[in-house]
Amino acid sequence: MIGLVLAAAGWGRRFGSEVPKQFLPMQGEPVYLHALRTFLPHCTSAVVVVPDAFRQQVEDEVGALAEGARVAVREGGSHRQDSVVRGLEALPPQAQLVLVHDAARPHCSTELITRVIEGAREHGACIPALPVSDTVKEVEDSQVVRTLDRSRLYRVQTPQGFRREILREAFRRAAREGFLGTDESSLVERLGQPVRVVEGEASNRKITWKEDL
Known about the structure:
- There is one protein chain.
- By secondary structure, the protein is α/β, with parallel strands linked by helices.
- It is built from 6 helices and 12 strands.
- Strands 1, 4, 5, 6, 7, 10, 11 and 12 form an 8-stranded mixed β-sheet that branches. A two-stranded antiparallel sheet has the order 2-3.
- The longest helix is centred in the middle third of the chain and has 14 residues, at 110-123.
């Protein structure tokens, strides 16, 4: 069985809105609902992790869905990592394969979800990524330190898929060592667990700035 943790607890300060971007309307409904609807056909259960101030709104919106009984809503934590842990622990024990997705990525395709699921089943951990096309430089104090070899650099997306026991152990180790990662795969890498990479999608962009929406 497959579980989904939809990370919707961030406030997205860079976006510059009083309402977090994932709750803003897009084509008639909140951004996060577009993402959730795409995943529900692939998942037996889902948890949407939200700021406490939006919990009742999301519970009402999710409850109105035909598949709403399979979706739980939980309050997030101080960091993304804390929020995803809460979502993971709220999934039923039968969900032994877990997908983690950014609520601010509303255009993920069914094909991409399938690629990640298949990769996670076979390898234990799988992420989608796209090769970097721009020249990338390491900069310190407004000075170029070096130019990086972009042939080995990729832009990582979500959903990220993991066997549940691998992801739980990654969170436990990170908590013990006080490590905060920017995504779930960075925690899993620290276990020495290989992470499979599958092709991402240019359309699966994360809403970060107002012009993205």
